[in-house]
Amino acid sequence: MKIFKVRIKKGYSYTALAILFAWIVVMIVVSPLAKYYMEKYDVDLFGREATIGWAYVNPITGYVHFHDVEIYELQGDSIFISATGASANFSMTKLLSKQVWIEQLTVDHPWVRIVQKKDTLSFDDVIDRFSGDGSDSTHSNAWHVTLLDTEIIAGEFHYYEQIIPINYFIKNLNLVGPGKTQDVDTISAKFSFEDGKGKGRMQGDFTINQKTLDYRFGAEVQTFDLEIIRQYIWELINYGMFHSTLDAKIKATGNFKSADSIRASGRLFLSDFHLGKTNEDAYIAFKKLALVIDDLSPARNKFLFDSITLHAPYIKYEVFDSLDNVQALFGKEGKNISDVTSQPGRFNLVIEIARYLREISRNFFVSDFQIGTLGIFDGNVAFNDYSTSEKFSISASPLTIRADSVNKRNKRVSFSLTSDIKPYGYATFLMSINPRDSGDFDLKYNVEKIPATAFNPYLISITSFPLDRGTLELNGLWNVRNSIINSNNHVLIIDPRITKRVRNKDSKWIPMPLIMSLTRDRGNVMDYQVPITGDLKHPKFHLKDVITDVVKNIFVKPVTIPYQMEIKELEMEIEKSMTLKWEMSQPALVGHQRRFVKDISGFLKGHPDASLVVHPIQYEAKEKEHILFYETKKKYFLMTHHKQAKDFTEDDSLEVIRMSVKDRALVKFISKNLSDTVMFTIQEKCLNFVGGAVVNRSFNNLVNERKASFLNLFKENGTETQVKMRAPENTVPYNGFSYFKFDYPNGMDDKLRDAYDKMRELNNKGPRKKYLKQRKKST
């Protein structure tokens, strides 16, 4: 009996050992077999070739781990997905009921490559393979797959779009989600990732109902580089650079079937936004755009913002000979954008964002909208016109726009705009508008101290006559109801004066001296009221006041010629005693200037204690532009006439001066070998043709010649020690020309003092007294 028990005990032991051995054998064999099976039947399983470094399978617990997994593209020429490791826990009991129940799936350091060409993705075949048409889902032999806890660790996803093209990736993607069972329609997860180049981070969570397509998400974005936007913008522009960063904290719900179903709150900040010709030359830029959203719900007609503010915006609009900078960037009349939008299946993220924003905001003005704080701060709006013979440039900076609380429920909303005008001037606009009707508003504006000489590029092109004096003021009041205008506009130009005619083929001729005599009244001003009526789409300008003044001047001004001559002589006496104006490219004093400077030197000779301080005010930008045009035309003339510089005559110089810098043959000639394909202005092309060194050398010679011509008259009578020449100041002069400004430390002579006293007396009486306040502001 005892022996029998021992044998039974040994039998149990041998059986246990056999089972253990078998289990060990299975454990040893099943893992390589799993690796072999996966690699042999990879195409049947995935539709793609795959390799596995090594595998571990535990058939008892249902744990599976694959190391160094690589799945190739459909063509097998490159990797589609790779991972350091992929692990899963299967429910073995569920397999008996034809259910693949993955209780946990972990993918470690996956690397994914996604390629798109129009509306085709590189993994469309995988989607088709595993999605099917759903017809077998109720079949008794159908297998059901359930994926529960899912985790992706430190993933890297690369996205390539072949048409645009796009090359973008994110890294350190971490995703954790509870998965999905058959009886639950929603999927959800928490995620975080970084920009591929380490410029920013994003994290959040989402929930999607696959049946209804409802969604909910929350996202926090930290200094995220919008490089992906830049690559889509490059498809829309002919040249240029873009960069910006995004910070945000947003919560939203909605439904994918309807764009305006979104309901969102949170804050969003776009920073360091730049779109322009280069990274330095911007067309539009701003430091920060800040939106703080209380409730954005287009479907419920609610647009409630705590604040919308724009900080340090910069906008530059430029007009060229045939296009402007916007059309040069996006194609004529936006051709680049229309080319993309007109192609079926063509995806562009920027276009889709624009369409989405248009969709959700289409009912903004008929909705319940509110903006607590609305403002633009420290703005700069610049306008450059290169279509004229000379460059015209003006800007508003610093520009500030403020608004009261913008609320549809308010009867009126007030806006204010204030800005300095560069190079000179100031502007103020005050507006009160009915938030429910854009055709119901009041506007009061005032623009002061604008030099009339700033508009010389247009005056020269249209009339051939520039101004060297004059101050422009504009003010008015508009009352608009139901889009019907009732307004009065006041135009005032104080002391305008025509100067020497510019003769070249770029300029048309209009008898401006005659026109000025008819439009300028006895007070040496042009003062007109110009009412505007009609509606906003078809305004009517009433010029009765202009016509009346012209007719009046025809009959009145001849009688006042002695008075006008007295004013003119006094102005000339004061002006020539205080300044010496240089015409563009004028190297030496001319007759009346020499006589005046000799008078000063004679005064200094007779008054050894007297002195003169000279401040050279140089309009360097305009002077160099004139030199640039002249040197370009001269070089072109010499090359096309096969001449050397030493053979260049005075008659040749006159011909060059009168030549148009926009002559078709000249422009074609200098455009042959441009170093930059995006040179749109004649200034850029000329500078490329002659070189900056030539212009700088000619300008320096001009400055030295003017100084020598001026000082020589003092050297002739030995008074040069009484003249102190200060360092030149480069600026935009109010009179539109370079000049020498004179100071008399020991006081002015009697003749100049008498002229000042007489002018002060005339300004305080007669027709000039009415404009005394404006004259004081413009000095």
What would your notes on this structure say?
There is one protein chain. The protein is α+β, with helices and mostly antiparallel strands and 779 residues long. Among the domains are: 1-130 and 142-184, no CATH class; 583-747, no CATH class. The chain is built from 20 helices and 31 strands. The protein has a 24-stranded mixed β-sheet that branches. Strands 27, 28, 29, 30 and 31 form a 5-stranded mixed β-sheet that branches. The radius of gyration is 40 Å and the shape is elongated.
Instruction: Report helical residue fraction.
Output: 25-40%
Main sheet attributes: strand count, strand direction, barrel closure:
24 strands, mixed
* Quantity of strands, as a count: 31
Task: Give the helix tally.
Answer: 20
Overall average residue pLDDT = 85
Q: What's the shape?
A: elongated
Query: How much of the residues is beta strand, in percent?
Result: 35-45%
Low-confidence segments: 134-140
Question: What is the end-to-end distance?
Answer: 132 Å
Which class do the helix and strand fractions yield? alpha+beta
Radius of gyration: 40 Å
